[in-house]
Amino acid sequence: xxxxxxxxxxxxxxxxxxxxxxxxxxxxxxxxxxxxxxxxxxxxxxxxxxxxxxxxxxxxxxxxxxxxxxxxxxxxxxxxxxxxxxxxxxxxxxxxxxxxxxxxxxxxxxxxxxxxxxxxxxxxxxxxxxxxxxxxxxxxxxxxxxxxxxxxxxxxxxxxxxxxxxxxxxxxxxxxxxxxxxxxxxxxxxxxxxxxxxxxxxxxxxxxxxxxxxxxxxxxxxxxxxxxxxxxxxxxxxxxxxx
Length: 243
What we know:
By secondary structure, the chain is of the alpha+beta class. 33% of the residues lie in helices and 26% in strands.
């Protein structure tokens, strides 16, 4: 018989043929593979009782058809709480745990360790809660695989971070190297020439330097004392000096 309702929650029995019952027996119907199956229990029979996990075991010592209850080890229970000894309350948790393990293994085999620890904790909780000790070797193997991927990912992240830092350091060295500094456009003019520029064409750069509108954009202005050094309103390209 397939194992169903493995969490041991009571099943409400359907009406059965009471002609099969007697003061020493009772019947319960439960779903098994989509079909209703009748189970008959007798006084003195060793049975499992739902309500705890794992189910506890006792002997039927009393039967009341009036209340549809059975006395197991001197405690009365609804008929729906009583199960055959062959009933495996770990069947459904075992199947669910196996599914979790396979899903996690597929993720780890594909190199995906995201949420691996959370999923491992779920499997471990199932193993402990339902006493599924047969899965402990799988759990240890998956722990090792997850740890291997995490270490590999962190090593890769460290390597990438070091590469980015090295590239940033190289860019900084290039900027500090006059031979590699990018040239900037500059207009040199005397103070007299600067004063003649209309204020609507003057501006300030973010660093506070003077600028004028030239060819549709702001171009830096350098004030020179020697008129011979003036570029006469034309922009030239120069390498910025090191600060």
